[in-house]
Amino acid sequence: MANHVPASFLTRANALFRKNLTYQKRNIWSNVRLIVIPFYLCVLLVGIQVLFDTQVNNSADNRCGCRCIEKNGDGKCETKSCGLEYSSLTQASFCAFPNPPPLLPLLQIPRPETRSVVDPVRGSCRRTGSCPVTILVTGNNHSLGASMSLTNLLHGTTSEADYTNYLDPGLHSDLPIFQIRPRCMPSTNLSFLFRQTPLTFHKEVRCLQGLSLWRNSSVEVNDEIFKGYLQGNPKKITNEVAAAYDFLNTDKKNFNVSIWYNSSYKGEFKIQDRRVNYVRVPRSVNLVSNAYLRFLRGPGTKMLFDFVKEMPKQESILRVDIASVIGPVFLTWVIVLLFPVILNSLVYEKQERLRIIMKMHGLGDGPYWIVTYAYFLVISTLYIICLIIFGSAIGLKIFRFNDYSIQFVFYFLCINLQISLAFLVSSVFAKVKTASVVAYLYVFGSGLLGGSLFQFLLEGLSFPRRWIFVMELYPGFSLYRGLYEFSVYALKRNLNGSDGMKWKHFSHSAMDEVFYIIIVEWFLTLIAAYYMDRVSSSAKDPFLFLKKAFKKSTSPQRHSLQRKGPAVSIEMEKLDVAQESEKVKQLMLESSTSHAIVCDDLKKVYPGRDGNPPKMAVRGLSLAVPSGECFGMLGPNGAGKTSFINMMTGLVKPTSGTAFVQSLDICQDMDRVYTSMGVCPQHDLLWETLTGREHLLFYGRLKNLKGSDLHHAVEESLKSVNLFRGGVADKPAGKYSGGMKRRLSVAISLIGSPKMVYMDEPSTGLDPASRRSLWTAIKSAKKHTAIILTTHSMEEAEFLCDRLGIFVDGRLQCIGNPKELKGRYGGSYVFTMTTSSEHEKDVELLVQDVSQNAKKIYHIAGTQKFEIPKAEVRISQVFQAVEKAKGKFKVFAWGLADTTLEDVFIKVARTCQTSNILS
User: Fold this and answer.
1) With contact defined as beta carbons under 8 Å apart, do 443 and 339 qualify?
2) Judgement on whether residues 147 and 250 belong to the same structural domain of the protein
3) What total of structural domains would you count in the chain?
4) Residue 252 lies in a domain
5) Worst-scoring range by mean pLDDT, 84-98, 160-174, 514-528, 748-762?
6) What pLDDT is stored for residue 564 in this prediction?
7) Does the residue 355 lie in any domain?
8) Residues ≥6 apart with Cβ < 8 Å to 538
9) In angstroms, how far is CA 372 from the centroid of its own chain?
10) Rounded to two decimals, what is the model's pTM?
11) Which residues are CB-contacts of 661 (< 8 A; sequence separation ≥ 6)?
C-alpha cells in the first residue's frame, strides 16, 4: 500500500545514506585503495630519506674527519681517532671545538689582477702582481684622514672567506698571507701555532704596499668603488679597493664613521649563511679604530688585535630530514589529491543526470547536500588520519615533531575547504574528463607554485607581507603555508632540539593567520556553492539578484498571462484544441480542482546561437489531465514533446505561461511537486553497481514507503515488469540488457503510486512480450495517477492512452481519444492494389468508377494506395468492382482497410508541416 504523505527530511536523508552505503560496499576496494594512498606516499618519502642519508647525511664530507689508529687481523679498523687534524676544510665544521684555536685576523684584499691602479702608466703591475692595495678615505676632517696610515700589524689575504673560521682558508690554503706596509721589505716566513691543536702552520708572508688615498666626498668614493667593482670575469680589468672610510663629522669628541667593505669575496655559501659577508670586517674596524686613536693620542698609540676566535661547540653530524625539507610540496600534493576524487564524483552524477533523477523522485537539496558532504568528509578524515598515522609510524619528523592536535585541526579545516571548493567548482563543469584535467592541474600547480614561487616570496624580506596574505587566499597556498610552518618547526627541533609546533606557538607563527583564512573561506565557499547549485538546478541567471535590484518589481499574477502589444496575427485553432483551452481557463479560476496537471498557455523559446534565430519549441500549450488518465503525446522528432516534459519535470523553466501539478506552480513550488512525481526518462539513469532491487528500495524510501509496505511494493514492482524471476532483481544494473534497464526505469517511475508520472518513450527497445507485460503494468498503475506519455508506437498509444494529443511544430494540433481522432481525421478507407506496371492506369480508372473523390496516396512498382471517402462508397461496391477487374487483368494482391491511428498521425503531421512551410 502506498503512503501518500511526502517523505520527511530525515526519511529522504536516510534513503540517500542507505543507497550511498550500499554503493560504497560495491566499491569497497576502491575506497580502501584511496585510503592507503598516504601509506604508499609515506613509504616513498622514507625511501627518499634513506637514499639521502646514504649519499649525503652519512657521507664522509658531512662529518668530522677520522683516521684509523689500529687495524685487526682482517684489515678492518678497530680504533680510530677523529678531529681537526684529520679533517678537510669541508669536514672541519662538524668537529668538536671545546676550546677553539685563535686565528690571525685578516683583511680581505683584492686579487692582483683586479686591484686599483692609480697611475695608468704603471698598469703593468697587474701582470707582475705588484699593484698596491688601495684604501680610500673621506670626511669633514682632512687631518683625521691623513692619520689613516698603515702599520706593520695589518695582514691580509686574497682567499675567499668560508662559512666558518675553524680553519680559515686564508691560513690553510696555498695562497700567501700579505703584510701591508707603506713601503715593502723582502718576504719572510712566519709560523702560526694554534694553542689547542698540535698543528703548526708555516705560511709564506709577503710584503704588499698599501696606499691610503684621500677623496673630497663620499660621492667620489662611492662612484670610484662602483666603477671598479668585481664583475665576476677575471679577464675584465677592474679597479677594486680593499676598503673605504667616511669619517663624516668625526672630531675629538665624536667618533662617527661609515665603512665600505668588499662583499664579493664570500665563497659558495653566500646564500646559506649571511655571516660570511662579515668574516673579514673586524680587521677593517680595527684599522679605523687605530687611526682614530692616533688622531687623539699621537702616532705611537695603537690598539692591539691579536686573534679572532669561534664559539666553542660540540661535535655535530649533518642530519637533514628530507621529509621536512620537501614536505610542504609533497604533502600539498598528497592532501589536494582528494580534490579530483570528490570533484569527479560530483560531476559524474551531474553528467549522468543521476542527481536530477533523484531530485525528480523527491530527494531535496538539503538531504543531498548533508549526506553527500558528510560522506566526503568521512572519507577525507579517514584519509588524513591514515596519513598522520602512517607518517608517524615510519618516522617522518614533520608528523612526529609537531603537536598532533594542531595537525588534525589544520588538516580537518583544509579538507572541509577542499570539499566546499569541489561543490562550488562542480557547478561549472558538465563533463568528467574536463573536470578531471582541471582538477589535476590544480593539484600539481598548487604544489609546484607553492615550492617555486610562494616559498621564495615568503622567505624574501623585500616582498610585502600584505601580498603574502593576499596570496594565501588561494586555497593551495594557505595549505602550503601551514605545511611550511610544520616543516620549519620540525627542522628546528631536528637541528637544535627545540620544541616542534605547539599551541603556545600558534599566535607567534603564521598558523593563526592561516586558520582564520581557511575558516572564513570554508564558510564563504560553502554558501557560494549552495547558491550556485540552486541556480544551476533551476536554470536561473546566477546574477539575477543583482538585476532585480536595479529593476522595478512587478507582482506576478497566477491566473492571467500578461501580453504586451496587439497581436500581429491570430491563428484559428481546431475546435478540440479550443475546447481544451477553454476548459483550462475555467479550471484556472477554480480554487481547487481534481485535475492533477493543468498547463496554461505554456511557452518555451530557446535563445538564438551562432547567428541562428531563436527557436520556439512550445507555442502556447494549454492542457488539463485529470487523475486516473493516461494522456499520450504524439508528434514527429523536434515537435517539442521533450521540451514540454523538461518544463514539467523542472529541467528547464518556461519562457512564459505556467503549469500546476496538484495545484502547485511548477515555477514556484517545484521542490514540493517532486515529492509526488515519478519520471521515466528517455535514457536510463541508473547506478551500474546497484541491483534492480536496491534501486527500487532507494526510490521507494524517497516516496515514504517503510517496513513491510516498502518490501511489498518492491516485490510487486519487480513482478510487474518481469524482473523478479531467476535472480535478475539482485544482479547489478550494469549487467542488465537494454530492455531490462528500460523495464527497471518504468518500475522506478511507478513505485510508491505517485500522483503524476511522466514517461518518455517507455517501451523503446523491448521485445513484443516484454512490451505487452509493461503495458499491462502501466495500465494498472494509472487508476490513481495522471500519466503523460510520449511515444512513436501507435499501438502503444492506442492500448494505454485515454486521450491523445498530436504535437507538431511546438503546437497542439488535435486532441481526443483514439476513436474520436480516427473518426475525425480518418473518414475514409484505404484501398490497396498490386498489378503489373501496364495495368496501373486500369486500376486508377477502377477506383474513379467507385469514387470520384478518391485520392492516390502511394505508388511504387505496381502497388498503389488510395483514400476513398466512407460517405461515397459501400464495402460491397468495392468487392464487386475488384471481382469485375480480375476478369479484365491480373491482380496480384489487393486490400481494403479502415483508417489507423498511424494514418491519422501522418495526415495531421504532414498537413501542419505543409501549412507552416507555405506560411
Assistant:
1) yes
2) yes
3) 3
4) yes
5) 160-174
6) 39
7) yes
8) 650, 653, 670
9) 17
10) 0.69
11) 596, 597, 648, 673, 676, 677, 755, 756
